Fold GAF domain-like protein.
Amino acid sequence: MGEGQHHAEYSNYQGDLSKEETLQLLVDSYEAVSNDTRNWVANLSNASSLVWHAYHSLKVPVNWSGFYVINPTKPEEELILGPFQGKVACQIIKFGKGVCGTAVSSQKTQLVANVNEFPGHIACDGETQSEIVIPIIKDGKVYGVLDIDCLALEGFDEVDVEYLEKLVTKISESNDF
Amino acid sequence: MGEGQHHAEYSNYQGDLSKEETLQLLVDSYEAVSNDTRNWVANLSNASSLVWHAYHSLKVPVNWSGFYVINPTKPEEELILGPFQGKVACQIIKFGKGVCGTAVSSQKTQLVANVNEFPGHIACDGETQSEIVIPIIKDGKVYGVLDIDCLALEGFDEVDVEYLEKLVTKISESNDF
């Protein structure tokens, strides 16, 4: 970070960038910010903020961006809430349940155009219409998920998948879970 | 939580409550939400959201609400960033440095009307004007701090101290750090 630059400035995306440029800047900013520590709570907290501000600069009505991680007290069964931006969220999600739980059990990104049509969708917020969830995988093991909710239907597409998977790869490499 | 209520609804404070009523609701909502788990990451993530939405319902221009916790790799020396709402933040704060570090070393709430006049203030965001920091103490030991920043001078007063200290007492009781 340059002399005199505040950490908060990483959240100030320019409004005139393309979607691809904004999401690449998100990936690059995460890499810069996470350089100081391998503490996952600190890095995932800043990552939630970077994701939130990137999508808001693109005028995508994201209402929740954050993480669920493997619950250390039930590591074979469930996710527990991690750092996020947005409204209060459900604490526990069982593997295989809802969009997040499906991302864990399938180890695959879930791109959901309409959450109301997703079997077993868990509504932490009844206003959410679409969602994307990317599993954080290292050496074949899932450590958690990046979860982003949107107030609009079809809030995310293959471009989001491409860049958010890049972000999550960086997250899996830069943290000790 | 009532049948059919979403977790997100805890973030929806009514705009016509007094400051005291809103802050008491914040304390009560934290107690309800944290009832499910003693996992500190999950509970502090939801607490950050409750604080953010409480102050925004009161039209207080809070630009950051969240936590720093004792860095597990340097527990005698420094705080590390925990869950928060707002823009990207500094990861590490040394004990005794800035408003947060002073709250740890003094074990006392810091109510700062103008951060620019606080000796050794650490500016994660140059736009912050006032700040309140409450240490999380259990059995005489500090586990972290609740930190709230405001874009206005004198954003907080003795009413905030009273209710936020109640909140932090609940936080210290309801989590395994």
Observations:
- The helical segments of chain B are 19-33, 40-57, 98-106, 158-174.
- Chain B touches chain A at residues 6-12, 29, 33, 36-37, 39, 41-42, 45-46, 49-50, 53, 64, 66, 69, 71-73, 80-92, 123-127 (CB under 8 Å).
